[in-house]
Amino acid sequence: MSALHFLPPLLLQGAQMALVLLAAPLLTGWVRKVKARLLRRRGPPLLQPYRDLLRLFGKEAVIAENASWLFRTAPYLIFAFTWVAAALVPSFATGLMFSWTGDLIAIIALLGAARFLLALAGLDIGTGFGGIGASREVMIAALAEPAMLMIVVTLALIAGATQLSTIATFMLSGVQGLRVSLALALVAFVIVALAENARIPVDNPATHLELTMVHEAMVLEYSARHLAMIELAAALKLLLTCSLLICIFFPFGMANAGDAARGYALGLLAYGGKLALVGAILAVFETAIAKMRVFRVPGLLGAALMLSLLGLLLLYISRGF
Amino acid sequence: MTPALLAILALCATGMLGVIWARLPAGRWGVYSASLGLSVVLMLVGIGALAAPPSGLTLPLGVPWIGVHLRLDALAGFFLVVVNLGAGGASLYALGYGQHEKMPERVLPFFPVFLAGMNLVVLADDAFTFLFAWELMSVSSFALVIAHHRESGTMLAGYVYLIMASLSALLLLLAFALLAGPAGDYAFALMRARAVTPGMAGAVLLLALLGAGAKAGLIPLHAWLPLAHPAAPSHVSALMSGVMTKVAVYGFIRIVFDLLDGKLTGPPAWWGAVGVLALGGVTAVGGILYALMESDLKRLLAYSTVENIGIIFIGLGLAMAFRATNFPAGAALALTAALFHVFNHAVMKSLLFFGAGAVITATGARDMEQLGGLIHRLPQTSFAFLIGAAAISALPPLNGFVSEWLTFQAILLRPDMPQWGLKIMIPTDGALLALAAALAASCFVKAFGITFLGRPRSALAAAAHEVDRFSRAAMLGFAALAVLAGVLPGVLIDTLAPVVSAVLGARLPVQITVPWLSIIPVAASRSSYNGLLIFTFLTSATLLTVFVIHRFAARTLRRAPAWDCGFPDASPATQYSGASLSEPLRRVFGTTLFQARTVVTLPPPGDTGPARIVKSRRDPIWDFLYAPVGQAVGRMADVMNHLQFLTIRRYLAFVFIALITLLLALALWQ
User: Fold this and answer.
1) Per-residue pLDDT tens over the stretch B339-362
2) DSSP class of residue B589?
3) What Cα–Cα distance (Å) separates residue B588 from each residue in A123, A297, B274, B284, B592?
4) Cβ(B287)–Cβ(B314) below 8 Å
5) Cβ neighbours of A119 in B, within 8 Å
């Protein structure tokens, strides 16, 4: 009886984990496609990321002579950390079975753990490029992570919880109305999200030029299945960030626990539509602006940190009792 | 109680025997195995006291009309566990590490006495015993700091440490004097019963904060810590950083939350909490920024201790704030977070200092710029160090994350504080805590990445060998503890509950009955965390991926020279060094804070002379606080020095003038 009781939510959780894994490369492909079209190129087919992954899986892995065990295990661990974090973010429905396993702070910390490992993997071989990537990554992280946590704190104070499901339900109810703090948090979130996912203007995912590399510099020594795992983790992280944005700021259409099958179908549809829209906006944004010099990035991220802190202080002061 | 006392006496006796044994080859075994055994006994006593009613003991020793009062309550029991967990680990580690000691006679006699001093502080129940034990702890650790007195910088470290330890004891002496009042009620029981005026309470709080803070390493009283902790042998560094700073935290909690308990004077004023919160936040961020600038592994760890003390004091400040505003549930959460972090930091920092000691044993170098590639030479040490580094960077599913998560939950608990000071200070501390956590991760990427990864930067690092099995057992044991406390945080929270409720009269809800062993500090809809499930998910996701990849994808692996965009350089000097890794952060944070400057001089075209790069950095706190005070003392000493060479007539005149002045003062006074 209890097993039957557990089955539907378990299936739902499984569906969510499979969905994010399968949809992640598609989102990457979609962003690339839109970007190419905006540049009046035909661009690679939508499914190209899947083909790339399959091709990489089939290749012989070549690693440096002095690579340690950490270098070989890091891709799998990075992928696992990102996947678990992605599984905790409600995508098309709230109230997933294991959503209480970790709250928003835990999700950010899981991503932080993935980045910690990636930076270490960059340092493992002892090449100049690995070091440059790790060094820049930790600088970006040192500013982006506090900004992200401040955004979380702002949300938590508005919704009265750090539990993502509760926040989404609260935002769905529309009680919060329009708040200046939320707007500030949204702007800060977008900046942090661009930095976290190594997108323009912080980093360029499509280049191998020394002056512009951060993420690519760290993974330069990886090949074949190891590289595929890291690419997949990066795609998952992009999807996770978009899902987070949708879940927190635009949760309408999301299915609630206990909805009928139709609710879930609608939720799925809405999620797909919103994801496509966010991806398209990202592509437009990336086409419209230029990559920043590395030492201009702290200014940008500092602005995000200040915006989020401002939103937070505003919240404390405007409550005023 | 009696077993604890006997164990402490036995530790002192071991110290005496250490004087004799030091010359014998077996002396190390005797001293460290006795310390290990006695630490285990004391830890068991501490565990037993967690849930038991307080027990006391008065000995007819010490100052005649006071006697020696000892008391073992839940709070003392918890700190007894923390102290002796660290002490036991350090003793086990030293069984192996101690064989490299060149001058055992300078270490062996003082090590057990140091342990005895720390244990006695925790058990003391009157001001005299407390201060005596406090000084015993300071003096014995001072002797251990200057054990390697011929190394450059050690004597300076010892000197600064001695001054700051005296300052700390002086401030605590004044705090106790205020608490005892004119009648001289030096027993803690009498102090608890005495009414204190709000002004007096504020003064005691300030003195306790500065006195205990100087010992714990609160900024700006931290200057001795990064000098003294690294100068000592590594197992002593682990004790000083991991354990002795916690004894200072204990002193603060004992005075502020117990002796200054507001039963008789109404709820304590909230502005004290603002001060503690401000100092805690500044210490957390400042400590880790200092750590980022370091390239000496042990100094980096010492500065990271400063950061963690800041995090603990943020928790304590929150507890004070909530207690002052009549919100016992919040105070319980904040104090639980602080105590959880006390335990975590004792485990993590001991582990990391053991690792640093292993690196020194294996290579003889402390400077990270000479290390590298040790993951190949010291596989087990590097694995344990990696766990410690990830734990102290607050990464799930390890223990450091849980306590920082709890602190965040306490920060988020109550935005509608009635006082403006708290209304501004609490979110600011949230931002500072977030910044400190992110910077800590960067700092430990550097600590682990430069020391253990990459290619060896010196011949010593290339020829390193794995350390002995006692050292490895201590490191791996503490690493396991870090994982365990992260995976099963609910058990630890429940263990802390009687301590918290003894101090505050309130506690967190029981966690062990929550389904799936989650922890829920306030309410399920608000926030929850499940270390066990996260750990299980991570493990199963990793194993599943590895299985799928190795089943369905190509399995071949080939080793080849590094790619490096086609231009691999054979020299390890082309790798990123520790300084270059933290250069971006140095630019972002150090330019204004530390006046960090980089001057590049390029020779003009045609000149074949070398180019130069000069980096400079100043320590603002040292420059603006310590250096002026030191100079003033020096100048005054110079002036007074003239008094040393006077004739007898002048001295007699001075005595006469002093006598007249005092008599006049007395006459005018009445």
Assistant:
1) 999 999 999 999 999 999 999 999
2) I
3) 22, 10, 28, 18, 9
4) no
5) 445, 449
The DSSP output letter for A178 is: S
Token pair 């210490």 is at which residue?
Answer: B283
Closest partner residue to B376 (CB to CB) among A68, A81, A120 is A68
For residue A255, is pLDDT > 60?
Answer: yes
How far out from the chain centre does Cα A155 lie?
18
CA distances from B112 to B10, B116, B237 (A): 9, 6, 14
Residue of A nearest to B377 (CA): A68
Chain B residues within 8 A of A300 when measuring between CB atoms: none
Q: Where are the alpha helices (DSSP H) in B364-378?
A: 374-377
Say how far apart CA B304 and CA A204 lie, in whole Å. Answer: 34
By C-alpha distance, the chain B residue nearest A306 is B431
Q: Which domain holds residue A116?
A: 2-319
How close B604 comes to chain A (CA, Å)? Answer: 26
Beta bridge partners, B612, equal B601
CA distance B281 to B314: 6
The one-letter code for the residue type at B579 is A
CA within 13 Å, CB half, B552: 11
Residue closest to B348 by CA, chosen among B264, B463, B282, B440: B440
Burial of A245 (0-12, 13-18, 19+ CB in 10 A): middle
Q: Considering CB atoms only, which of A66, A83, A106 is closest to B396?
A: A106
Let me know: does A164 contact A158? Beta carbons within 8 Å.
no
The count of residues in chain B is: 670
Furthest-apart CA atoms within chain A: distance in Å = 65
Enter the ipTM.
0.93
Asked if B178 contacts B207 with a C-beta cutoff of 8 angstroms, the reply is yes
* Cα of A189 to nearest chain B Cα, Å: 15
Round to whole Å and give the CA distance between B296 and B137.
26
Taking an 8 Å cut-off on Cβ atoms, the answer to whether A139 and B585 are in contact is yes
Mutation pick from A5, A139, A164, A223 vs chain B, by most beta carbons of B within 10 Å, is: A139
Token pair belonging to B570: 């054979």
Domain count, chain A: 1
How far apart CA B7 and CA B84 sit, in angstroms, is 11
Angle between helices B27-50 and B74-97 (to 10 degrees): 160
H or E segment to which residue B560 belongs: strand B557-560
**Mutation for B interface: A173, A184, A209, A316, most B CBs within 10 A:** A316
Q: Which residues contact residue B212 at a Cβ distance below 8 angstroms, ignoring those fewer than 6 apart?
A: B168, B172, B248, B249, B251, B252, B255
**What are residue B71's phi and psi, to 5 degrees?**
-150, 140
Classified as helix, coil or strand, B119 is helix
Whether A139 and B584 lie within 8 Å, measured CB to CB: yes
Residue B605 sits at φ, ψ, to 5 deg, of -55, 135
B556-578: per-residue pLDDT in tens?
889 988 888 787 777 888 888 98
Mean pLDDT of B108-123: 94
Cα dihedral A137, A138, A144, A145 in deg (nearest 10): 130
Contact criterion met (CB < 8 Å) for A127 and B386: no
Backbone angles phi, psi at B38, to 5 degrees: -70, -35
Predicted confidence band at A2 (pLDDT cuts at 50, 70, 90)? Answer: low
Residue pair B332/B277 in contact (Cβ under 8 Å)? The answer is no
Residues A269, A115 contacting (CB under 8 angstroms): no
Q: What is the distance between the alpha carbons of residues B414 and B485, in angstroms, rounded to a whole number?
A: 27
**Which residues are within 8 A (CB) of B69 and not within 5 positions of it... i.e. 6 or more apart?**
B56, B57, B58, B124, B125, B126, B129, B187, B188, B189
Of A120, A128, A317, the CB nearest to B453: A120
Check A319 against B412: CB less than 8 A apart.
no
The amino acid at residue B277 is: L
